[in-house]
Specification:
Elements lengths: L1 H19 L16 E6 L5 H12 L3 E3 L14 E17 L5 E15 L6 E12 L5 H38 L2
Parallel strand pairs: 1-2, 1-3
Antiparallel strand pairs: 3-4, 4-5
Helix pairs in contact: 2-3
Length: 179
């Protein structure tokens, strides 16, 4: 009987510690309730980042409007507008094998986008997501698949950063407008 009580107390202590320190499950960005509709624009339609970001926003119960309008043609009913201006992936050489073949790359994924809220100028943001990638000329097919997985992971991380920035910028916008 005493063991059951001590086990319950231990579990309760762990749960309260996690809740008290602000722990949240990964992917729980705490999007403000004021963002229910978002217009998602892109310079290039159907890029992988555009698709991933749209799916993640929809997963957060945000209605995503995705049309062919430009950043100057904003839907006034949208709570926020995100305009993906560009994204590019570069490979930088890090090291070589003794034979002169590339041994290791640094992958740099650069994202440029704008966030705009009603009656506010667009906020332009740029950031990089980097990864190291080791090449093996003896396993070209496997390394090609690994590279695809790394690039997809980098796009998901970029989409997560954009979502966190939307939430943060929206909170700041509400504080400055008193809304």
């Amino acid at each position: 009987m005493l063991q059951r009580i001590s086990l319950k107390v231990c579990i309760l202590t762990i749960v309260l510690t996690l809740v008290g320190c602000g722990f949240k499950l990964r992917g729980d960005y705490g999007m403000p309730a004021g963002i229910g509709q978002l217009q998602l624009l892109a310079a290039q339609k159907n890029t992988p980042l555009h698709r991933i970001l749209g799916k993640q926003l929809q997963g957060l119960n945000i209605e995503v409007w995705d049309n062919t309008a430009s950043v100057n043609q904003i839907d006034e009913q949208a709570d926020a507008i995100v305009y993906l201006t560009s994204d590019k992936l570069e490979r930088r050489l890090l090291s070589l094998f003794s034979t002169g073949q590339v041994a290791e790359y640094e992958l740099v994924y650069t994202i440029n986008y704008q966030i705009q809220f009603p009656e506010q100028d667009a906020l332009e943001i740029e950031f990089d997501v980097t990864r190291e990638y080791q090449d093996d000329p003896d396993a070209v097919l496997a390394k090609s698949r690994e590279l695809d997985l790394i690039q997809n992971e980098m796009r998901k991380e970029a989409a997560n950063r954009i979502i966190r920035q939307i939430a943060s910028s929206y909170s700041n916008w509400q504080q400055t407008t008193g809304g």
